[in-house]
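My current task is to audit a protein record that another person submitted. I need someone to confirm that the token line plausibly describes how this chain folds. Take the sequence as given and treat only the tokens as open to question. This is what I was given:
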Amino acid sequence: MIARIIMIAYYLMSAFFVLITIKNLLKERNSRDRVVLYLVTLIPFILRLLRIK
């Protein structure tokens, strides 16, 4: 029971970080380096949400 609650919280946190990063990615218009940094940051969180290790 507790493990399931922790798993749900983990996936909600990952989804939150994905949404925040995508929001910042869409705002960024000047620096291509930052866009690449946002995309590289998104990869692990998206893989976690898809349950791919």
User: Anything to note?
Assistant: The mean pLDDT is 93. The chain is about 85% helix and 0% strand. Helices lie at 2-27, 32-49.
